[in-house]
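Structure in, sequence out. Go:
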């Protein structure tokens, strides 16, 4: 059964391996029927999840993750994290997010839901554009 400490150790190894993420050691902890969802996609099944991790590894120039907080209650684990991405033309961007992991009766991850503001956190690091984007959001929704 996964514990909060194991999750912290596994995630640290996944994202902090010389810039390229590596899921090979953590994939066995996912159930074959994993349901993954974030702001971009929804994926069902370990084959599609593994393919998604391989695409992310291939596209990533430098990707790091710092786990800020983690709590576990019963079969739920919540993590707050900061992910640093590097792009070709722009400075590194930090995404601030959280993940909810649901464990099945065997202790494997059956569901993962990631929450983050992809565009806002990236746009904040593009000169002038970030300020205009935040101004637009404030005018329309704030």
């Amino acid at each position: 059964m996964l514990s909060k400490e194991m999750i912290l150790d596994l995630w640290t190894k996944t994202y902090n391996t010389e810039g390229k993420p590596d899921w090979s050691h953590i994939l066995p902890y996912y159930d074959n029927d994993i349901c993954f969802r974030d702001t971009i996609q929804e994926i069902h099944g370990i084959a599609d999840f593994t393919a998604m991790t391989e695409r992310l590894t291939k596209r990533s120039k430098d990707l790091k993750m710092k786990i800020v907080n983690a709590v576990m209650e019963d079969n739920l684990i919540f993590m707050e994290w900061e992910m640093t991405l590097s792009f070709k033309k722009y400075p590194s961007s930090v995404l601030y997010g959280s993940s909810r992991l649901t464990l099945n009766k065997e202790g494997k991850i059956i569901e993962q839901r990631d929450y983050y503001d992809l565009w806002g956190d990236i746009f904040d690091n593009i000169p002038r554009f970030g300020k205009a984007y935040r101004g637009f959001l404030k005018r329309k929704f704030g």
